């Protein structure tokens, strides 16, 4: 039976370190602040934004929420981002995705100052990740790496398979595993013989967005299984991995809830602190 990777415990540690740094910055007259923009009333986004505000409060980060109506125009949103870019008390800017369909997401993400880009979605930050010289890492892949590190899971030389190629999770996840000298395959909806590929994985990361997609026959005995999924199944939160069936085969596994989710939230706090340091030339 697998060791269950306790994302809540690792996240608490990351938050504690961030809180300590917020305190030190404050003692040096530097305010750490996060602005969160949410457009429309998507219920999942609302939950995520509430959690982010709660995390800020807990660790002493000043936060501002901009809850804009569904019919907000591109110009209004761009003007808000521009004004937040100029503010010295706002270290980080996060625009909750997805945006309503009439808004151009790319334009908004490109407009956020790279120094305040706590999601690491700006093309210049994405490019920096590619060459391994980065300020910010996207929260979910960074959270996964932190968990692997905490549990002393070796990546070098391991066969790593990432299912999913999103800009937010799959692609950067593959890149971070590659930076740690894993041999990485990124799978997607057109991958031929997916179970044949995933069965090779020493480290398998599932970021598909389909409940219980990864079944026991897709997993090698002793694999490390990381579940990035957050799906609702019969009203219950459920990952991309069929946990009950896969856990007996795995050496380590992340649960849902209590695995990657808390880590994503904690890394956002870490990135906000990093942003405050960057803007104030603190190392
Ligand atoms: N929506 C779902 N995940 C995320 C995320 O990590 N950042 C932002 N900004 N929006 C999201």
What does the secondary structure layout of this molecule look like, with pairings?
Layout: E1 3-4, H1 7-27, E2 33-39, H2 43-59, E3 62-68, H3 74-86, E4 92-95, H4 105-111, H5 123-131, H6 139-150, E5 159-163, H7 170-179, E6 183-187, H8 194-198, E7 203-206, E8 224-227, E9 231-233, E10 236-238, H9 243-246, E11 252-253, H10 260-279
Helix pairs in contact: 1-10, 2-10, 6-7, 6-10
Radius of gyration over all CA atoms, rounded: 19 Å
Number of strands: 11
Strand adjacency order, main sheet:
1-11-8-7-5-6
List low-pLDDT spans. none
CATH class of the largest domain: Alpha Beta
Binned, the helix content reads 40-55%
Assembly level: single chain
Based on the coordinates given, report the CATH architecture of the largest domain. 3-Layer(aba) Sandwich
CATH superfamily of the largest domain: NAD(P)-binding Rossmann-like Domain
Number of domains: 2
Helix segment tally: 10
Shape by Cα distribution: globular
Mean pLDDT: 98
Spell the H/E element sequence. Answer: EHEHEHEHHHEHEHEEEEHEH
Bound molecules: guanine
Task: Classify the fold: give the CATH topology of the largest domain.
Answer: Rossmann fold
Query: Strand share of the residues?
Result: 15-25%
Q: Between the first and last Cα atoms, what is the distance in angstroms?
A: 42 Å
Content-based structural category: alpha/beta
């Amino acid at each position: 039976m697998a060791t269950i990777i306790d994302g809540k415990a690792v996240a608490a540690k990351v938050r504690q370190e961030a809180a300590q740094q917020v305190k030190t910055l404050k003692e040096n007259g530097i305010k750490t602040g996060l602005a969160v923009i949410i457009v429309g009333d998507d219920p999942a986004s609302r939950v995520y934004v509430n959690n982010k505000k709660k995390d800020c409060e807990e660790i002493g980060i000043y936060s501002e929420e901009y809850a804009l109506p569904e019919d907000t125009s591109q110009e209004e949103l761009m003007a808000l981002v521009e004004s937040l870019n100029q503010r010295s008390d706002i270290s980080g800017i996060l625009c909750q995705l997805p945006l309503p369909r009439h808004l151009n997401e790319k334009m908004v993400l490109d407009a956020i100052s790279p120094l305040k880009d706590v999601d690491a979605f700006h093309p210049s930050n994405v490019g920096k990740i590619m060459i391994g010289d980065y300020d910010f890492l996207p929260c979910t892949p960074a959270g996964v790496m932190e968990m692997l590190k905490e549990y002393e899971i070796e990546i070098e030389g391991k066969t790593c398979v990432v299912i999913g190629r999103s800009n937010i999770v799959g692609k950067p996840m593959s890149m971070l595993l590659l930076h740690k000298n894993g041999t990485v395959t990124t799978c997607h909806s057109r991958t031929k013989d997916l179970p044949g590929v995933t069965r090779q994985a020493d480290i398998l990361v599932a970021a598909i967005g389909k409940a219980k997609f990864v079944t026991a026959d897709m997993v090698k005995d002793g694999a490390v299984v990381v579940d990035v999924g957050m799906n609702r199944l019969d009203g219950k939160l459920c990952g991309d991995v069929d946990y009950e069936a896969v856990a007996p085969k795995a050496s380590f596994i992340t649960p849902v809830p209590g695995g990657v989710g808390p880590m994503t939230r904690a890394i956002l706090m870490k990135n906000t602190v990093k942003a405050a340091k960057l803007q104030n030339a603190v190392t």
